[in-house]
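Our consortium's second objective concerns turning raw sequence data into structural hypotheses that experimental partners can test. To show how far this objective has progressed, the report includes one record in full. It was chosen at random from the queue rather than selected for favorable results. The single chain below, 124 residues long, was entered without modification.
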Amino acid sequence: MATYDQSSPRAIGALVAAERIRQGLTQQELAGLADVGVRFLVELEAGKETAALGKAIQVLAALGIAPRFEVSDETLRKADEILAEPDAGARRRHRVGKWGVGGGSDVFRSRSSGRQDRKTRGTA
């Protein structure tokens, strides 16, 4: 088995297309196997830089391609610690930005005063 050292979106797309063709699959067949849309697969194979990572991994898995990452031991240990934290993903996903969302209301900072204002959804 060979190692593929290219990591650009275009190179990953070419790898997906080449393996799909080698396996004799159409784009529609692979999309069905990977549970993604045909449009997503077409864009992935074309090297679209904003392709969703989770879906790209689904396509690679459907083709039997396992992504490998070269990282330092320290990074690997830290990643294991983060994965072991209870609900670590939710904590990182819920960051309130300039137009942050919380519960049933939108919280935003006034551009002029910098103070926080609250606007409840569905009200004028």
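The partners drew two points from this record. Residues 9-22 form the longest helix (14 residues). Residues 94-114, 116-121 have pLDDT under 50 and may be disordered. Both points have been shared with the crystallography group to help prioritize constructs.
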